[in-house]
Every structure is written in structure tokens, then in C-alpha cells.
């Protein structure tokens, strides 16, 4: 840090040595840490409270923080239905990822590399579902399914497939966006080298291009998974009592008598989120998530 | 490379287009037809829903509330998030990546679970309220259910982690060397932040703010769960109009107004930013 010349005179230097606690730099540093620390307390408080309550006895049938005593019984009291629903949500999100990657990666490659006018319009079209509030998407798909049912006899509302189609709709922009971002940055000279060395275009795609853009695919897939797994508004319209996702189950449970065993399930989800983050950081690197420009 | 790229694009394009046009056309068309009850719509084209919406203070208040809540929450997110993002982006210690990973992991957790946690924190007999009551800092327990402030807190949790991640990427793009230059020229740290960092980060901050604003405008979960039927933002009202009243026409009309308002705010801000940039370009 530069100090103006006059401050370097002997008395000032002495003064600084005698009051080392409150230099401007230290005060700024302390302020920054208080701010950042406060932010993390604020950010993590609801999650910490759930985990604590999941291991605690309730008071008058309600979960409280801090809990009066610790117990593991809520984890034992998790009903089969909760786990079935959680499993269904995970399977749905996984299927959404598979479909979105299968559609989104070719779409992104096509978007960046086709030489069409009006590519900007197509990019906007692929982004459009993000701009539509999820509630609106939910209602719109419900009505679309009614019309399809009138025409074909197949009703998508309340079925697993119906949820899958709607979730692919809201999740696809994230895969397309992430992959477009990496394909644009990708240096095509690597592909040219492979072609010159005699690789066919298809094997170049498989062995050069796809590995190079993999981080974008992983981060897009992560966002797609989360979009489906976290979604409440769309699933709320398309769920039935037989086929509902975990957020819908939780939403409905919060309106009525609340079962503390749900806190145990929520704790499992929170733990899984942190583990997933760790794995992603280890395998792909957190930067892929940041760069994808969702 | 000589692969048939346009052909790659075709299947996803056709599917996306079919889903987008199919769902939105069916839904938005309903806004121009009268509700006949039990989900049926009239045959004739009419603007009655729109007339009703703009004549009824109930709907207009809901729209105004949604815009206000989204704006205030976005502002809060930015004020809280910018210093955090800046400190994390400048951090040289090995804890930096860990803290960042914690924020990303927190953004992974669905808002339904976060609201569940907020309900426990703000329970009338919860630890926080008992502590504050005992300290005499409050006379009544602080609760969030059915309160505008509560919904604002819920919206804050909906966007905060994600927006801080965006702001972090913005801060990374500002070279450290500029700060050192400013300080070597004698600028104080605060002055350096105001005159060097903030102006450089402003376009990115505004872009992140817009994303946050859009998320808030469309946010259903926190508003529905915390608002408890008392705070009716537009997304909540849309869900109620469709599910409880089975008025698809009016629901669609509200959705159109929500979409158009969001779009208008975005366009206005983009216009403002480009004017700002142009003005700065002239003085520079």
C-alpha cells in the first residue's frame, strides 16, 4: 500500500506502531469479514435449522430451533411414501438430464456452427422458456395436455411422462446455454488437426470435440437436474395424488399437519446437495458452473 | 468441420418450437375469451378480461405489489451480494474456493426446503423469538407468515445464492492491476472502490440485478408458502385463479400482464444502461 510521503515522517511512524489495532487496512478487513460472515450465517441459517430440528424432539408436535433434546427417531420414522416420492423426483430429474443432453448438445453445436442468418432468433427461441414464469408454464402445459387428450385420448397431466416433457421444456435452455458458451470458445484448430491426420468427421466429433466441450455439458446437466429436482410450480399443476414430486409433497405437507420425519428427508437432500457440489468440484471443477453464463 | 450442423439443430428445434408454441398459444389465446365457469371458455373473441383487470384495483394492486417486492428484493440482493462477491473474488487464501462451493451448494437446495427452515426460525415459540423477547428487543414475536416482509425474505433466499455466483463472475473480470494502479496513484481504498471498481462492475451488476428481478417477478413458491393466502403476488394469483376459481381466461390474462410487465422493465433497463454507457463514452 502506498503511503503519502509526509506520513512517513518519524512521529507518524511511531504513532502507527503504538496504535496497531485500528489501521485503515485492518478496519476495512474486519468490516469485510463481518459482512461476509454475516452473509454466510444468513445464507445457511434455514438449512442449519432444518438439520438441527431433524435431530431434535419437537415441542407440541412442532419442530423448533434449538431443539430441547436430540433424537434419531425421525430418520427411523421416514415413511415409505416419502422415499418413493424422493426416488421418483431423482429418477425424473435424471431422465430430464438424459433427454436435455441428447437434445441440447446437438442443438448447441448446430446453433454455433450453422451459417444461417437469423441464428440470433433461434438462440432467443431456445432461451424463451427461461423467460416464462414457471407458474405460467405449469398452467400452459396443463391446458396443452387437455387438448392433446381431446385429440388422442392420452392425458399427460398427472403422469410421469407429462412431468418429464414439461421439465425438459424448462431445463433445456440451461443445457443449450452452457454448451453454446463452451463451443463458442473452443478452438477449431484441434478439430482441423484431427481431420488432417485422417480422422473422419464423426470420430473427430466423438474424440476431439465432445471431450473438449464436456465441462459445458456437465454444468448444463447439473443445472438441468436442479431445475427439475427443485421445481415446484410446474409440478404442482401436473402432479396427481399418485404421481407427485418431492417438492409437491413437501408443499402439501406444509399446509397441513407437518410430519417432522419430512425434516429428516430434507436433511438428506441438503447433505446430498453439498456432497454433489464436492463431487462436481473434484471431477469437473467449479469454474465450469460459473462460466456457463446461465 | 464438415458435419451437417443444421441437421443437428432440426430435431431439438422442432420439439422446442412445438412445445413453446403449443403451450403458449393455447394458454394465451384463453386471455381473449370469457370465462363461463368450471374451466370452460366462451367462443367469441373479447377484451373483457383485460378491461376487467385494468378496472379492478384488486388486480392492479397485485401487479404493483409484485413489481415493488421484486424491485426491493433485487436491490437488497445486490447491496448484500456485491461486497461478498468482491471479497470472494479477491481472496487469495485457500478458503476462497471452499466458501464459493458452499454458496453453490446452497443454491442447489430447493426453495421449498429453505422456506421450511425460515418457518422454523421465525416460529412464535422458536429460539430466535424467545431470545429477542427476553432481551426486550421486541414486544411481539417476529413472524413471517402472511406478511409482506416475510415474502420479501423468502424471495431474497430464492435469488441470493445464485445472484452472488453471477456477481462473483462479474468481479473476476475486473483486473486486480487496476486497483493497484489506483492505489499507487494515491486513491484511498474506499475511493478506489467507488471510482474504479463500481463503475467497471456496473454493467455486470445491472445484468445480474435484472436476472434477479425476473426470478422474483415469476417466483411462486416463497410467495405462496409465506404469503399464506394474504400476500397475493401475481404468480400466486395466477395459480389461485386457475386452480381454485378455474378461470383459465382470467389466469391467462394475468399471465400476459406479468410477462409484458417483466419484458417492459427489462427493455427499459437495457435502454437505460446503453444510455449510461453512451454518456460515459462521451466523457471518457
Structure write-up:
Chain A has 2 domains: about 25-70, no CATH class; about 80-290, MetI-like fold (Orthogonal Bundle), CATH 1.10.3720.10. Chain A has 13 helices and no strands. Chain A has helices at about 10-20, 25-55, 75, 80-115, 120-130, 135-150, 160-185, 190-195, 200-230, 235-240, 245-255, 260-285, 285-290. The radius of gyration of chain A is 26 Å and the shape is globular. Chain B has a domain at about 55-230: MetI-like (MetI-like fold), CATH 1.10.3720. Chain B is globular and about 75 Å long. Chain B starts with a helix and ends with a helix. With about 280 residues, chain B is mainly alpha-helical. Classes of the chains: A mainly alpha (about 290), B mainly alpha (about 280).
Question: What would a concise description of this structure say?
Answer:
The complex is a heterodimer of chains A (294) and B (284). Chain A is mainly alpha-helical. Chain A has 2 domains: 25-71, no CATH class; 80-291, Orthogonal Bundle (MetI-like fold), CATH 1.10.3720.
Amino acid at each position: 500500500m502506498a503511503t503519502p510521503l509526509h506520513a512517513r515522517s518519524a512521529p507518524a511512524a511511531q504513532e502507527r506502531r503504538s496504535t496497531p489495532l485500528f489501521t485503515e487496512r485492518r478496519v476495512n478487513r474486519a468490516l469485510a469479514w463481518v459482512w461476509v460472515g454475516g452473509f454466510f450465517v444468513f445464507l445457511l441459517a434455514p438449512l442449519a435449522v432444518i438439520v438441527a430440528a431433524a435431530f431434535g424432539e419437537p415441542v407440541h408436535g412442532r419442530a423448533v430451533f434449538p431443539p430441547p433434546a436430540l433424537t434419531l427417531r425421525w430418520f427411523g420414522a421416514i415413511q415409505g411414501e416419502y422415499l418413493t416420492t424422493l426416488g421418483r423426483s431423482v429418477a425424473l430429474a435424471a431422465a430430464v438430464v438424459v433427454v436435455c443432453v441428447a437434445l441440447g448438445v446437438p442443438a448447441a453445436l448446430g446453433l454455433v456452427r450453422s451459417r444461417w442468418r437469423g441464428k440470433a432468433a433461434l438462440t432467443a427461441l431456445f432461451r424463451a422458456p427461461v423467460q416464462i414464469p414457471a407458474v405460467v408454464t405449469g398452467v400452459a402445459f396443463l391446458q396443452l395436455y387437455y387438448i392433446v387428450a381431446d385429440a388422442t385420448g392420452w392425458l399427460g397431466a398427472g403422469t410421469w411422462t407429462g412431468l418429464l416433457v414439461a421439465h425438459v421444456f424448462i431445463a433445456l435452455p440451461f443445457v443449450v446455454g452452457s454448451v453454446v458458451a463452451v463451443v463458442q470458445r473452443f478452438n477449431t484448430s484441434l478439430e482441423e488437426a484431427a481431420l488432417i491426420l485422417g480422422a473422419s468427421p464423426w470420430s473427430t466429433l466423438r474424440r476431439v470435440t465432445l471431450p473438449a466441450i464436456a465441462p459445458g455439458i456437465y454444468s448444463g446437466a447439473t443445472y438441468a437436474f436442479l431445475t427439475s429436482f427443485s421445481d415446484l410450480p410446474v409440478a404442482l399443476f401436473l402432479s396427481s395424488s399418485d404421481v407427485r414430486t418431492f417438492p409437491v409433497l413437501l408443499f402439501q405437507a406444509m399446509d397441513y399437519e407437518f410430519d417432522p420425519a419430512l425434516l429428516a428427508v430434507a436433511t438428506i437432500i441438503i447433505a446430498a446437495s453439498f456432497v454433489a457440489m464436492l463431487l462436481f468440484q473434484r471431477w469437473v471443477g467449479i469454474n465450469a458452473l460459473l462460466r456457463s453464463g446461465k | 468441420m464438415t458435419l451437417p450442423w443444421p441437421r443437428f439443430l432440426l430435431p431439438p428445434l422442432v420439439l422446442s418450437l412445438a412445445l413453446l408454441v403449443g403451450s403458449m398459444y393455447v394458454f394465451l389465446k384463453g386471455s381473449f375469451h370469457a370465462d363461463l365457469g368450471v374451466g370452460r371458455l366462451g367462443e367469441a373473441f373479447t377484451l373483457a378480461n383485460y378491461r376487467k383487470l385494468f378496472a379492478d384495483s384488486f388486480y392492479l394492486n397485485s401487479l404493483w405489489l409484485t413489481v415493488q417486492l421484486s424491485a426491493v428484493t433485487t436491490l437488497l440482493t445486490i447491496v448484500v451480494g456485491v461486497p461478498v462477491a468482491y471479497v470472494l473474488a479477491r481472496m487469495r487464501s485457500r478458503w476462497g474456493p471452499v466458501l464459493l462451493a458452499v454458496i453453490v451448494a446452497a443454491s442447489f437446495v430447493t426453495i421449498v426446503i429453505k422456506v421450511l427452515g425460515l418457518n422454523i426460525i421465525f416460529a412464535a415459540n422458536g429460539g430466535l423469538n424467545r431470545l429477542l423477547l427476553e432481551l426486550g428487543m421486541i414486544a411481539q414475536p417476529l413472524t413471517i407468515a402472511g406478511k409482506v416482509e416475510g415474502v420479501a425474505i423468502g424471495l431474497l433466499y430464492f435469488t441470493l445464492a445464485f445472484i452472488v455466483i453471477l456477481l462473483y463472475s462479474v468481479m473476476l473480470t475486473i483486473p486486480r492491476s487496476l486497483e493497484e494502479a489506483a492505489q499507487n496513484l494515491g486513491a484511498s481504498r474506499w475511493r478506489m472502490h467507488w471510482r474504479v471498481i463500481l463503475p467497471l462492475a456496473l454493467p455486470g451488476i445491472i445484468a445480474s440485478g435484472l436476472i434477479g428481478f425476473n426470478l422474483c417477478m415469476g417466483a411462486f413458491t416463497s410467495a405462496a408458502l409465506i404469503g399464506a393466502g394474504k400476500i397475493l403476488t401475481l404468480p400466486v394469483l395466477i395459480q389461485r385463479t386457475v386452480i381454485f376459481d378455474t378461470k383459465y381466461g382470467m389466469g391467462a390474462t394475468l399471465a400476459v400482464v406479468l410477462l409484458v410487465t417483466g419484458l417492459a422493465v427489462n427493455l427499459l433497463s437495457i435502454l437505460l444502461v446503453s444510455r449510461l454507457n453512451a454518456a460515459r463514452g462521451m466523457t471518457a
